[in-house]
Amino acid sequence: MSAYAYRPLRVLRRVVPTYPTNGLLAGAVNIRIQGTTRTAAGLLDHDIAYTARTFCVSSQCQSGHNKWSKIRHDKGRKDANKANSFSKLSEQITEYTKRYGPDPKTNGRLKLLLDQAKKSGMSGTIMENAVKRGQGLSISGKPLETVNIEGMTQEGVSFIVECVTDNKLRTLQDVRLIINKAGGKLTPVSYLFVKHPYMHLTGPEEMSPENQTAALEDPVLTLPIEYVGLLPGETSTWEARVEYSEPPLQLVEDMQKILPEGWSVTKTGLKYYPSDHVQVEDESEAGDAFRNFVEKLEDCSDVAEIYSNLRWSSYEPPKHEIVLTE
Question: At what angle do helices 124-134 and 108-119 cross, to 10 degrees?
Answer without folding.
Answer: 150
